[in-house]
Amino acid sequence: MKKLGIIGAMSVEVALLKENMEAMQVSTHAGMEFCEGKLRGLDAVVVQCGVGKVNAAMCAQILCSVFGVTHLVNTGIAGSLNAELDIGDLVVSRDAMYHDFDCVHFGYEMGKVPGMDVVAFPADKAMMDLAFAAAETVNPGHTRVGRVASGDLFVARKEAKEAIIAKTQAYCTEMEGAAIAQTAYRNRVPFVILRAISDKADNSAEMDYPTFEAIAARRCANVAMNLAKELA
Predict the structure, then answer these.
(1) Is 13 labeled as catalytic in the residue annotation?
(2) Mean pLDDT across the stretch 168-172?
(3) pLDDT confidence of residue 5
(4) 159 an active-site residue?
(5) Does the global pTM surpass 0.90?
(6) Mind listing the pLDDT tens digit for each residue in 204-232?
(7) Which whole-number Å values give the CA distances from 214 to 10, 81, 88, 107, 168, in the listed order?
C-alpha cells in the first residue's frame, strides 16, 4: 500500500496541503507536527520540517522509520539559478546535490559526501514523470526538469548565485532538498523535489521574496496534491 510523505520547510508551504487532508490526525516527533490522513484519496503524512538541512534530514528519517512512507516529496519555493526560469515557474528535480559540502581537499568531488556512491542523488524516474505532468496541469508550459542545489544559505546576491552555478550547474537553489534526497536514497524510498521559483537570486531576492513567496508556495502545493492523486 502506498503512503506519501510530503515535507515543506515553512508553514506557507504546507498550509494548503493540511487544509485538504481528510481524517487528519496529528502527532509530534522531534518537535515537528506530523499530519497523517488522506490526501486526494492517498494515505499521506504532511509535515513542516523547519528551515535547513538538519531539520529536513531528521524529518525525512522520521517519515521513513516511524510512519513507513513508501514515497517522499519535498515541496516548496526556491531561487532561480537559470536565466530561463522566472518567478512562478516550476522545477521538478532530476537530482539533488549540496552546494556547500566540500571535501575536495581529501580527493572528493565538490558536493560529494564521503561514503556515498553518487555526487547528486537521483530522483525516482516514475515520480519525476508524474510530478512533471502534475506541474503542467498547474502552470502549463512553465515546468523544467533539472538539478536542485541545497545548502544552509539563503541566496540573495548575484555573486553567490554564480558560485553555486559553477559548482553544481543546478536550475535552482534552496535549503532542504538534497538532505531529504540523501535520506530517501539511503532508505531506498522513491522521492522527488518540487520547487516553485519565488525569486531570481540575482540581487532581486529582497524585493521579490516577500511578494511572491505565498503565490509560489501555493502553486507548488497544488502540484503535490495532483501528484498524490496520480499515485493513489
Answers:
(1) yes
(2) 96
(3) 98
(4) no
(5) yes
(6) 555 566 667 788 888 899 999 999 999 98
(7) 11, 20, 10, 42, 27
